[in-house]
Amino acid sequence: MKATARATSNIALIKYWGKRDITFNLPATGSISVTLDGLATTTTVEFDEGCESDEILLNGAPAGDAGARVTKFLDLVRAKYGVSAHARVETHNDFPTGAGLASSASGFAALALACNEALSLGLPTPALSALARRGSGSAARSLLGGFAEMLPGTSPDGADAYAVPLADPGHVPMNMLIAVTSSGPKKVGSTEGMQRTEETSPYHPAWVAATTQDLDAMRRAIADAVLEEIGTLAESNCLRMHASMLGARPPLLYWNSATVAAIHTVWGLRERGIGAWFTIDAGPQVKVICSPIDAKAVESALRNTPGVTDVILTAPGAGASIVESVS
Ligand code: 2P0
Fold first, then answer.
1. Do 254 and 200 fall within a single domain?
2. Residues in contact with 50: Cβ distance below 8 Å, sequence separation at least 6, in sequence order
3. Are 108 and 135 in contact (CB under 8 A)?
4. For residue 131, with 0-12 CB atoms within 10 Å meaning exposed, 13-18 middle and 19 or more buried, which class applies?
5. Rounded to whole angstroms, how far apart are CA atoms 62 and 81?
6. pLDDT tens-digit series, residues 4-53
7. Do 213 and 154 sit in the same domain of this protein?
8. 6 and 154 in one domain?
9. Which CATH number fits the domain that encloses residue 100?
10. How far apart are alpha carbons 214 and 134 in whole angstroms?
11. Rounded distance, CA 12 to CA 197, Å?
12. What pairing do the DSSP bridges indicate for beta strands 147-150 and 31-48?
């Protein structure tokens, strides 16, 4: 009844921003991501009939708002699989939480896998990915290692909306450097930000149409392992997502001045012939894709960018795994 799972963040190369259904948390489009070898969440779940309510600790302290999302997920698991016991959940992130570093992706992937193990549910990966999606759409992708594609599915209950593998972590030799520009939590969470964009941005339908085309192109670029194509598509897709967010009322701007400075650093590197491309999520951090050969030069340029407080070097990594299981 007790299990510990570990999952890492994934960064979308073709982004998920919009839902076709809120109840089942179904994305409006597919997305393609790379799971990282760092930025890990480790989560222990213990179901105990003696627990009067769920007890949720995040990084050693009561989880607050994030705890409500975890309880909602546990309620779903209990209802779906006929479990009555409450749970003790202890989760630890080795990176800033809720700051555009995909902590909900690694968090709900680790939680879904730990629940599957602790309750001996025996869910196959697609069902586990669909379950993680109910916690957070991006979490469905962190169950898988390397390059993964989230399928939007067509079923009303989302049974066919899960992530599938595209390529192993080593298929495309690359690094992803994360330029940290702020460690504080973001003001508007992704769920709320997506809804606002869908409801008020006139560019949202164009974003959905463009993403559908980008998915085909990115699938090919990954299959052919052409880093320049992967990077070019990822940068363009990210800017289109942010353009759609800017068109919302009130507008959504997740960037700060250091985010913009890091963008110019990446463009400056390219002008000097160094292959580097950025992507940015619902937060101010800038994630830079490059060949391992160029990683040192890219890291040094990012570290010298005004307002960048840290640079984290990552690479494609493995999917979520069980650390410990006690029956
Ligand atoms: C992504 N993001 O594809 C995109 C790009 C942020 C920007 O997935 O509402 O936290 O919990 O399903 O998964 C963030 O959205 O949203 C996200 P919910 P989630 O990585």
1. yes
2. none
3. yes
4. buried
5. 26
6. 999 999 999 999 999 999 999 999 999 999 999 999 999 999 999 999 99
7. no
8. yes
9. 3.30.230.10
10. 25
11. 18
12. antiparallel
For residue 207, the domain's CATH number is 3.30.70.890
**Is 232 in the same domain as 100?**
no
Instruction: Give pLDDT tens digits for 71-116.
Output: 999 999 999 999 999 999 999 998 876 666 778 899 999 999 999 9
Kindly give the number of the ligand 1 atom that is closest to the alpha carbon of 100.
6
Q: Is the CB of 136 under 6 A from ligand 1?
A: yes
On whether both 9 and 141 belong to a single domain, the answer is yes
Task: Measure 298 CA to ligand 1 centroid, in angstroms.
Answer: 26
Q: Which two tokens stand for residue 280?
A: 């940015």
Q: Rounded to the nearest whole angstrom, what is the distance from the C-alpha of residue 261 to the centroid of ligand 1?
A: 24
Mean pLDDT along residues 125-148 = 97
Q: Is the CB of 321 under 6 A from ligand 1?
A: no
Residues 265, 137 share a domain: no
How far apart, in whole angstroms, are the C-alpha atoms of residue 65 and residue 56? 11
Total structural domains within the chain: 2
Instruction: Please name the residue whose Cα sits nearest to atom 12 of ligand 1.
Output: 137
Span from the CA of 4 to the centroid of ligand 1 (angstroms): 24
Beta bridge pairs of residue 43: 5, 91
Measure the CA–CA gap between 128 and 111, rounded to whole angstroms: 10
pLDDT score recorded for residue 22:
95
For ligand 1, atom 14, the nearest C-alpha belongs to 190
Phi, psi for residue 34 in degrees, rounded to 5: -125, 130
16 C-alpha to ligand 1 centroid (Å): 6
- Shortest-distance Cα residue to atom 11 of ligand 1: 136
CA distance 100 to 285: 7
What residues form DSSP beta bridges with 150?
31, 163
Q: Which of 14, 65, 93, 104 to mutate to test the pocket of ligand 1 (most atoms within 8 A of CB)?
A: 104
Residues 157 and 233 in one domain: no
Q: Are residues 125 and 74 in the same domain?
A: yes
Q: Is the CB of 137 under 6 A from ligand 1?
A: yes
- Residue where a domain terminates, one of 149, 168, 187: 168
What is the residue range of 189's domain? 175-314
